[in-house]
Write a structure and sequence with these properties.
Shape: globular
Number of helices: 10
CATH topology of the largest domain: Rossmann fold
Structural class: alpha/beta
Strand content: 25-35%
Helix content: 25-40%
CATH class of the largest domain: Alpha Beta
Number of strands: 13
CATH architecture of the largest domain: 3-Layer(aba) Sandwich
Distance between the termini: 22 Å
Number of domains: 2
CATH superfamily of the largest domain: NAD(P)-binding Rossmann-like Domain
């Protein structure tokens, strides 16, 4: 499978290194990357053997089978429909863009029409298989997410005591914290939807990691999951598990046996 990346940041670099240099996905290769800054194109081509583009049409014509958006919400808005219209499957990391119901519906309709697929990695959380299983027959009653993060990553400053900085729906959470709570949107799309998923965000001066606690209740029983995520070694703002989930999503595209 030939992979194209949109974005040249931490996750995109991790994928190029893992796939092209470390050969973590045998039989797959990152062939092209779409960059905003042409001055780093040479670095990508030299370090990872990847063709670098600044023009999206040239990028999509580079013989790739699947595109991974590893950039921003704006990149999803700008490129997702174009990627799908060119018959490419798409992996979306900036899932906050899909809180826009009109965009979600357009992409869903386009995929049905063209037979393409959009994949949403689980990111920095787990338990989505349970959520999806429970909701399929309408047997999921409540889903909530409590996220604890170091205050600097949420507020840009330190605080002396634990502080609840947000409580509300996933829709409201992503509008106020667009770079911090993508996990709430993945959880919502797997389950009850953005308006029915309750989110609490806590700035915790004792926290050294991002901590996500998911609780779900339904006729299946109860689920409670707590994840303490280590950051990427070279970027403390990005969860290592989130990057690994993208790699796992790509692996599933060519796996002969699927689990879950």
């Amino acid at each position: 499978m030939k992979i194209g990346l949109i974005g040249g940041g931490t996750v995109a670099t991790f994928l190029a290194k893992s796939i092209n240099r470390d050969h973590k996905l045998p039989g797959n290769s990152v062939e092209a990357v779409l960059l905003r800054k042409p001055d780093v194109a040479g670095e990508w081509e030299c370090a990872y053997g990847v063709r670098a583009f600044t023009d999206v049409e040239a990028f999509l014509a580079a013989g790739i089978d699947i595109v991974v958006e590893a950039a921003t919400v704006e990149a999803v808005r700008d490129y997702a429909e174009l990627v799908i219209s060119r018959g490419k499957d798409l992996v979306v990391i900036s899932v906050g863009a899909l809180v826009d119901q009109e965009l979600y519906d357009r992409l869903s309709g386009l995929c049905r029409k063209l037979g393409t697929r959009i994949h949403l990695p689980s990111g920095a959380i787990g338990g989505l298989d349970v959520i999806q299983s429970a909701v399929i027959l309408g047997q999921l009653d409540e889903v909530s997410l409590t996220t604890r993060k170091p205050p600097v990553s949420l507020l840009g400053r330190q605080v002396d005591a634990e502080e609840i900085v947000f409580t509300g729906t996933a829709t409201e959470a992503i509008s106020q914290f667009p770079k911090n709570i993508n996990v709430a949107i993945v959880l919502s799309l797997a389950g009850l939807g953005c308006s029915q998923t309750r989110v609490t965000i806590v700035a915790d001066p004792k926290a050294t990691k991002n901590i996500h606690c998911i609780e779900a209740v339904g006729s299946f029983g109860k689920m409670s999951i707590r994840l303490e995520n280590d950051p990427m070694p070279d970027n403390p703002k990005t969860s290592y598990l989130a990057a690994l989930s993208v790699l796992s999503t790509l692996k599933k595209q060519t796996a002969r046996i699927s689990i879950g």
